[in-house]
Amino acid sequence: MGNGITLALAAKELAKQHVDPAWRRKFVDLTDLIQILADCIIPNEYTVPDDLSSTLPLTTAGTRMKDRLIRKEHVPIKEAHLMCALTLGHDELYLDVESIDIEKFANLIESQLTAKKIRFPFSYGRQLYDAYGRLFEDEKDVLTIDETMQLVDAVPLGVYQYGKYVLGPYGLTTSKAERHIRFSRVVPAYHCSQPTCKAVHSVRLSTGYDAAINDERKKLHRILDESRMTAADWWGLALEVDNFAGSYYADHHSATLVGLLGDAISDDELRAVLVYLLDNTKGEFRGATAKLLGAGPADQLTDSLTREQMQQLTLLINETWLARALDSLVRREVIHVPRGEVRRPVTNLRNRSGAFQLSPELGHLGVRFVSDDRGFASLRQRQLLDRLYLRDNQTDTEELDWQLRGFESDDLDERLENFFRSTDPRTALTRMILARKTNMIAACEYVGIEDGSDLTDEQLVETVLWKLGFDVRTEQDSHRSFWDLHQRISALTQASRISGIGESETFRGVASSFFQELEGLLADALAFSVFVLLIDHTRQAYPFSYDDSFDRQRALERLQEAHDTSGNTVEEFNFISDRLELYSLIRGFEVLAKELDKMQKEGDLHDRPANEIPDFDGKTAVKQFLFKSRVPFLNVTSASQDRLKSGLRSISTGMLSPVEVHQVRNDYSHYRRTSPEIDRMARALDEIGVAVKEIENLGMARLLCFPAAVESDAWGRSKHHFSGPRSVEHLFARPSKFDWMGLPDLRTSQYIIRAAVFAEPNEVLRLTQRFESDFSRMWSNYPSRRQNGPIAGASSEESGPHATNVGMQSGRTGSPRDLSA
Questions:
Q1: N or C: which end of the chain has fewer CB atoms below 10 A?
Q2: pLDDT digits over 621-646, tens only?
Q3: Would you state the torsion angle of the CA atoms of residues 757, 759, 765, 768, taken in this order, to the nearest 10 degrees?
Q4: pLDDT tens digits for 466-510?
Q5: In what order do the strands lie in the sheet with 763-770?
Q6: Where do the structural domains in the chain lie, given as residue ranges?
Q7: Among 537, 393, 575, 383, which residue's Cα sits nearest to residue 468?
C-alpha cells in the first residue's frame, strides 16, 4: 500500500494465496466457461437468461459493484450481474467460486448454444470460405452484425475447446484432454482479386454491440478505470494454475492438430480416424463417446456422422492418440498420402500454437509439428542426441565415448556438441539411433513413433528426420529407369556383334522395355512442355504448380488445338488419345515449336488485361511484375524464346533424321545381328540419348529439384542453391525485384525450367508438384477470388502484397471485456 493505491497482485502471488487443489480446479473451469460467453457472437436482441444470477453467485465485492451499477448507473439487474461475472474481479474476486455450481453453469451455456442464443460459426475446412463467396462478391474488412448473422446462419455450429469443455453440434461436452482452441471473430474468408496473392484474407465478424449487456459495459469500464484500486491478475491466475506456460513452451505440439484435421483430412479419412480411436485406444475413446455414440461396431457408429460432429468427437481424446491414429492410417495407406505430398492447414494456415508457433503437417511418413524457425529442427535433434545416453550411467557414458571417437575433447558433452555441429543430421541420427535398441526406443518415444522396430533402418531414420522437422528428400528421378535401360540396350547392341546363340531374345526383351520407357518419357515431357510454355500459370487455381493426373490432359488438349489450327493437312495427329504412338510424340515437339512461332507473331493479342495486373506494378521501382502476357512463353527473354524453339525442334528432328527412331522401334522385334541393323540401332540409341539430354537441359523434364543450401550475409542478401538428378544445379539470389510475382516459395522442392529465363541472369519459370489425393479433391475449385476491394499489408515469400492474416488465439490473452469481445 502506498499513497492510498493498492499494488496489483501478480498471478504468482495470487497462486500462493489460493493453494487448495479443489478451489483451483473449479476456478479454472469457471474461467473457461466465462471465456466461452466472452468469445461468442450475440444478436442485438440478446437478453440475459433469468436464471443466471442464481447460477453465478457474487462475493461481497461483486455484490457491492452490482448494486452501484444498478443504483447509480441505472443498469438493469440481470445485465449488472452478468457484467460483474464476466469481469471476474478487480482488486478482489467478484465471483463466489466456492458457491458456484459449475455443472449448472455449463448446462446453462449449453442451453444457450442449442437455442442459438449465443453463436459460434464453423471455421475449419472450406465451409465458411465457400459461404462467404456465395454471400458477398467483394472484399470486406468487417461484416456488420446483419452480415455476420447471414454468414453464421450459412454454416454449421463451430467446434472449439476451452480447457476441458468442447462445444459443437453435440452441445457442450467434456474432453479427456484440456486444450485452448478459442473462437476468434477474425476468420479466414476469401482470396482477394490480386492474382499473385496467395493469402487467405480474414474478415472481422461483428457481435451485438447494441445488446444491453454490451451497451452498458462502458459504465463498468469507466468505474474500474477511475478506481484507485489496481486490478489483480485473476486471468493470469487461471493460466498459472492451468500450467499454461508448460504447454505454451512445448517443443513438439501444443493443441495444433485440430487445424490439420479440419483443413487437410477428408470426411472419409476423418471417419477412419474415429474408427481407429474406437478400436485401438483400449476403451478410452469409447468411454469418452459412449453417451454420444452408444455401443456397437466402429464403422456403424461413425457411418452417418457429419463433418462437424466428427471434428468435435476428435477433441474428446488427447493429442497423442490423434497423432498415433494419423500415423497408423497413413502407414497402412488407409489415408493415402502420395510420397512427396505434404498436407497443411489451408484456410487456417496462419493458426499457430505456442512460443515456437508450431503448425501441423501430414506427409507419407506421418504427422509432425513444424516451426518457421529454420533452425528449430536442429534444436530438436540436439535435444534428442542428449536423451540417447544417460550421463549418470557408466555403461551409457562409455558407449557414448565410443560413438564419439575421433572428436577431440576431454569433455564428453563438448565432443557431442562438436559431433552435432560437424555431422549432417541424417548421418548423425543413423550413427546414434541404430547403435543399439535402447537408442531406437528412446528416439521413437521422443518424436512419437509407435512400433519403430517394424520399420527398416532407412525408414526409421527418415521418419525420425521428418518428425523432427527436417525436409526428407523424396528422390524422384523419373528418368533413372530410362537411362538404366539405355545403358543396357546400348551394351547389348554393341555386344551383339560378337554375341552367341540365344541372346536375341534377351535383346528383344530389353528393347521392349526400353521403348516403352521412352514413349512414357516423351509423353510426360511433351505434356509438361506444353503446360509450362502455353498455359497461363498466374490465373490457375493452383498457380505455378503441376498435377500430372490433371494438367497433362489439359496440356495435350492444348497441343491438339495447336495442330488442328496449324494448317497441316498432310499429317494427322491425335494427341489426346490414350495410346500415343512414338512418331506422334516425336513430332509433337515440332508442333509445339510451330505454335510458339505463332504466339510470337500474335504477340499483343495475348496481353494480360489490366484487371489481372497486380496493383504494385508500376507503383514502385523496387518490385516488378513481368508476366504481362497470358502465354508464359512470351514472358521469357528473346534469347530464351530462341533457345526453347531451337531445342524443341532439335528433339524432334534428331529422332527423325538421319535415323527414324519410330521405325527402329517398330522393327526391333525382327532384329537380326547384321552390321547394317546393328549400326542403325546404335545410331538410334545415340540420337535418343541426345534428345533426352536436351529435354533435361531445357528443364522440360519433370525432374524435381530440392533446396540444397542457403547462404546469407550481413546485408540481407542470400543465395538459394537447388540441386536435382544428374548433378543439376541452379541458384537464385534474393532480394529480387521479381519475388512478388506469385512463384513458388524457395523453401520447397520444385521443377526448374532452366531455359525459360524471364529475367537475367537466372530468374526462370518454376513449378511445384501437385498430387491427386483426397486432400487435393477437398480443395478443388479453390481459391475463389473476390471481384475488388482495398488491400493493404506486407508481402509473403514470392507473392505480392496482401493484408496481414490474424489467426485464432491459443489460450487466454486477457480478461473478457464484452460478451463476445
A1: N
A2: 999 999 999 999 999 999 999 999 99
A3: 140
A4: 999 998 876 678 999 999 999 999 998 888 766 644 457 788 889
A5: 545-547, 763-770, 750-759, 704-712, 718-724, 728-734
A6: 376-468, 480-608+624-698
A7: 383
